[in-house]
Design goal:
This protein is α+β, with helices and mostly antiparallel strands and about 450 residues long. It contains 20 helices and nine strands. The strands form three sheets. It has a five-stranded mixed beta sheet with strand order 5-2-6-7-8. Strands 1-9 form a two-stranded antiparallel ribbon. Strands 3-4 form a two-stranded antiparallel ribbon.
Length: about 450
């Protein structure tokens, strides 16, 4: 099993990896199908199902689908250009993707939110259709956005498509037990094994270049969030808080009046800064999803800015270790809130961040696995119940607490010798089972929990 660090961490656009990035990626894939098809196309249609329908507007799924069909992709998303093109599409009711003719597409009639039909493969389903001059459908594809910006067609999902079909890698661990066994046999750290896998595919130069960019985008996102205030879009009237908290923390520095627990505020404000940016539709890195994008950058910034002896030379090890743990969670359970609740998003992110921090603080593979397990275990059962379907309440603060738990988990693991009662594999399987048992009301549909008990209009 091989999931690249660049699969787990993708540069994209907020507010949601599964509801915004995924549909945009699916639209890009569908355009490629159209370009390869021996037909003349005249129009497009789309329908959103399940969670993509229920919380689609709050997660900007409609915008992402429209812009994706117009040729926009997450990696190179230009917000200003997108706004201009969206306005043109709404007025002229056509899209103009590259290397295809101008296509009729009226968002008001050709983009359907289907609240009745939940597609069988996954809670996040969508159908894209291309039509001829008579309006008949000549090409149709069903896509599932399975979390973290990953997309599968209906056929790929039914066939149980593997997450990777490339050449073998040196350390193909599919479970934490296998990971630890390989680490003991090879005398290597989790990061070293993950690095060997990556280098076997892309080489060290590309790994270093890509890792450096990932942290730069994460760090820039934190900085933007710490210096921007105002009201977040979407209609809830949620105020940005990160700038005010950060300004207060900076003012308190050096006053010798700060309580020791204030360090938690630093961790939280870094995470909140990212998730406020995500809620505003800014550029973020999935870690492993947009809804949980603040946890890992917050812990990494905490390490670099607050811990003696920290070095940017260790950022790659942090990301590699985190990606290894995230890959295990995705392969054996889920990182999708629509599939397993927020335990799969913030819980996974906290486990990844805990493992990364433990690793760069000198933890053994056993301690790294223990750190990940502690963090994930104490997110089990967490629901995904965004108010009005927006990735704001409780999502923004939840990332802050996920970062605090990650640091606590890493610290506890480092106080031990790596031996512990609950294996990470058992915790991941418990998360999978809990997600399967969880009512759909609590899986990113905004039909239960805070979403219905908090006045939001």
């Amino acid at each position: 099993m091989f999931l690249s660090v660049f699969d787990m961490f993708k540069v994209g656009v907020g507010p949601s990896s599964s509801h915004t990035m995924g549909p945009m990626v699916a639209a890009a894939q569908f355009l490629d199908q159209m370009r390869a098809a021996p037909f003349q196309f005249a129009g497009l249609r789309a329908s959103l199902h399940g969670s993509l329908a229920f919380t689609g507007v709050g997660h900007a799924t409609d915008r992402a689908t429209i812009l994706g069909l117009a040729g926009f992709v997450p990696e190179s998303y230009d917000a200003e250009a997108a706004e201009k093109e969206l306005a043109r599409i709404m007025a002229e009711k056509t899209v103009r993707p590259a290397d295809l003719p101008e296509l009729v597409f009226d968002p008001k009639t050709d983009l359907i939110f289907d609240y009745e039909q939940v597609l069988p493969g996954h809670a996040n389903g969508m159908i894209l259709m291309a039509t001829d001059a008579q309006g008949d459908v000549t090409l149709r594809e069903t896509y599932y956005s399975i979390g973290g910006g990953f997309v599968m067609t209906e056929a790929e999902l039914e066939a149980g498509k593997a997450t990777d079909d490339g050449p073998p890698v040196p350390f193909p661990f599919k479970s934490a037990q296998e990971m630890l066994a390989m680490a003991r046999k090879a005398g290597m750290s989790v990061a070293a094994m993950k690095r060997a896998n990556e280098v076997s595919r892309i080489g060290q130069a590309e790994l270093t270049k890509g890792s450096t960019r990932l942290w730069q985008v994460m760090s820039d996102c934190i900085d933007r969030g710490l210096t921007t205030d105002g009201i977040l879009p979407g209609g809830l009237g949620v105020r940005r808080r990160a700038k005010g908290i950060h300004d207060a923390l900076m003012a308190e520095r050096g006053m010798n009046l700060t309580a020791p627990h204030t360090i938690n505020d630093w961790m939280s404000v870094y995470a909140m800064a990212v998730n406020e940016e995500n809620a505003a539709g800014s550029q973020v890195v999935t870690a492993p999803t947009n809804g949980a994008a603040g946890v890992l950058p917050a812990v990494l910034r905490y390490y670099l800015d607050h811990l003696p002896g920290a070095s940017t030379a260790h950022v790659e090890d942090f990301l590699l270790t985190a990606a290894a743990i995230g890959g295990l969670v995705k392969f054996n359970a889920s990182i999708s809130g629509a599939e397993a609740g927020c335990q799969a998003e913030v819980g996974s992110a906290s486990a990844m961040a805990a493992a990364g921090l433990c690793a760069v603080l000198g933890g053994t593979p056993e301690q790294v696995e223990n750190a990940a397990e502690i963090a994930l275990e104490h997110h089990l059962g967490m629901t995904c119940d965004p108010v009005r379907g927006l990735v704001q309440v409780p999502c923004i603060e939840r990332n802050g607490l996920g970062a605090v738990k990650a640091v606590s988990a890493a610290s506890l693991a480092l106080r031990g010798d790596g031996q512990h009662f609950v294996p990470l594999d058992a915790c991941i399987e418990t998360m999978r089972q809990t997600g399967a048992d969880m009512s759909d009301k609590y899986k990113e549909t905004a039909l239960g929990g805070l979403a219905v008990n908090v006045p939001n209009c």
